[in-house]
Amino acid sequence: MKTDREAVIWTRIGMRPVKMGRIYVTDSECRVTYSEDFLNTGLPGIGILYPPEIIQQTTVVRPRTEFFDLLPPIQSLIPPRGEKNFQRQLVLAYLARKGIVPSRGIDADWEILMMAGHGGIGHLDVFRDDDKAIEWYEVPAKHTLFEISDKFGFSLKEFLTWFDDDAAGFIQIMGATPTVGGAIPKLLMTIPETGWTGRVGLPSKIGAHGVTDVILKFEQTRSYPGIIELEALALDIHEEAGFEVPRRWKAVINGIPTFVIERFDRDGNCNPLFTETLYSIFASGDNTVTNPYSTTYDAIGRAIDRSPIDLVTDRKSAKQYLLKRLLFALATGNGDMHLENLSIINRGNTLAFSPVYDPTPMRAYSIHNMLTPMPFGQYGEVPLGEALLRFTRNLGFRKNYLLDLIDDVLSVTRDYADRVRALKSLPDRNRENIVSIVESIKSELSACSKIT
Ligand SMILES: Nc1ncnc2c1ncn2[C@@H]1O[C@H](COP(=O)(O)OP(=O)(O)OP(=O)(O)O)[C@@H](O)[C@H]1O
Ligand SMILES: [Mg+2]
After folding, report:
1. Residues around the ion ligand 2 (C-beta < 5 A)
2. Ligand 1 test: best mutation among 81, 87, 177, most atoms within 8 Å of CB?
3. pTM (whole model) above 0.90
4. In ligand 1, which atom is closest to the CA atom of 343?
5. In this predicted model, which residue has the larger pLDDT, 22 or 82?
6. Which residues span the domain enclosing 115?
7. Cα 291 to ligand 2 centre (Å)
């Protein structure tokens, strides 16, 4: 028997929760329709390329592919498929305890979406039906903060036990970072708004006070020793370079190095802000985008410039941001600035790149040692300096603009090697990897002024 799947999308991006529309998934298509009441609110929609004021009540129809069963902004709420994905395993384990064991593929994705597709990163909340939505929003937020102690273990089993006596809270916590890739465990939590003290609570809901939403990232010391310190250093450098960077704290929980990062997809009152990754935006606009690497930085610049629907409010500063981010990614050995590591948020009716997240110098780990995950300026066919110049010109900027930026980058990162060497938890080999990679890129960058 084949039955179409049906669900509803809500959001609390406005003053109160409102139903955005409904989703139908058939054998071959995903169909989404905005609801009339939502259209009257004037709020931003599901994704940048699905503007309610243009789409109105016309059903958006997207053929299902092996890459996307759902519209990309909705698919982003589901943790990626993969045996090792922590969020996915956590939800599947919880479902199994309730006797639900979906088959792999869309069946499992759908059950995960119904259970954990709300309260996560961004502004979209998906539920099985309106009753479920209303029920979820009605349960008041619990803002008890727990001392993180030995009870807070890190195995799946211990985690489940910790939440055993609070099923509602457990379900809420399942909203944990839905777009996470790879196996690095992350949890959504709240901490006191004044900052990290070792106490955590469940993610905020309506009417939260005195707390702020954060992501807890736990280090997987075996695969990525020292990654927390490296990410923290990279964020410091981006902040020194003038980028907006969320507040953050390093902590050790039960012996596990942990990074606590304030969420930028919530405002000062813990209300969601419209948030979308470039991956979701690009995949919405182009069915040939099938993974977070399937474009070029030049194409991102072109899309910013030419999209008939504004991706950002200030195109020029968005392109400047992109070029500067690329230069810092190169000069810090990031190698991982893909479409899911760049997001657009809407604050005060202005669409712009979000604060910086995940600029981790992944090239420290040999399996991730590549210059960039996406091409720019025909790099490969031409040397680095030439490629940067072509990319700069494709963005509509002059050579001198690039050269000034390079000066900035070299100056902000001048003692980067020493700072990397001072990291205590990063093994020597990884330190030396990153130092030598970065030194050689920086010398190529310094040579750029000679290019004509
Ligand atoms: N401070 C933040 N506020 C809001 N959302 C965030 C924040 N940091 C990360 N995110 C969201 O969570 C997702 C995963 O976070 P992040 O990229 O830091 O983790 P990751 O383990 O490196 O993931 P991946 O390996 O897929 O790159 C991001 O793509 C972004 O959508
Ligand atoms: Mg990431």
Report:
1. 341, 358
2. 177
3. yes
4. 31
5. 22
6. 5-79+103-129
7. 13
* Pocket flag, ligand 1, residue 179 (CB < 6 Å): yes
From 262, 287, 318, give the residue that closes a domain. 262
Mean pLDDT of the chain: 88
For residue 89, is it within any domain? no
The pLDDT of residue 150: 45
Classify residue 281: in a domain, yes or no: no
Each residue's pLDDT tens digit, 425-436: 999 999 999 999
Distance (Å, whole) CA 324 – CA 147: 40
Q: Which atom of ligand 1 is nearest to the CA of 336?
A: 27
Q: What angle do CA 18, 261, 19 make, to 5 degrees?
A: 5
Question: Is the CB of residue 420 less than 8 Å from the CB of residue 233?
Answer: yes
How far apart are the C-alpha atoms of 303 and 57, rounded to whole Å? 26
**Residues 95 and 144: beta-carbon distance below 8 Å:** no
Output the pLDDT for position 184.
Answer: 54
* Helix residue ranges per DSSP H, 263-333: 278-285, 297-306, 315-332
- For residues 192 and 210, is the Cβ–Cβ distance under 8 A? yes
pLDDT for residue 164: 32
Strand 186-192 to strand 5-11: parallel, antiparallel, or no bridges (unpaired)? unpaired
Instruction: Please report whether residue 88 resides in a domain.
Output: no
Q: Is 345 within a domain?
A: yes
Within this chain, do residues 329 and 240 fall inside the same structural domain, yes or no?
Answer: no
Q: Same structural domain for residues 352 and 435?
A: yes
DSSP assignments along 319-330, one per residue: HHHHHHHHHHHH
Q: What is the per-residue pLDDT across 299-343, written as a single tens digit (0 to 9) for each? A: 999 999 999 999 999 999 999 999 999 999 999 999 999 999 999
Amino acid at 36: E
What is the C-alpha separation between 85 and 220, in angstroms, rounded?
A: 13
Q: Is residue 87 left, alpha or beta, with left meaning phi > 0 and alpha meaning psi from -120 to 50?
A: alpha
Which pLDDT does position 141 carry in this prediction?
A: 63
**Helices of type H across 71-191:** 72-75, 86-97, 106-116, 130-138, 156-162, 167-173
Check whether 407 has a pLDDT greater than 60.
yes
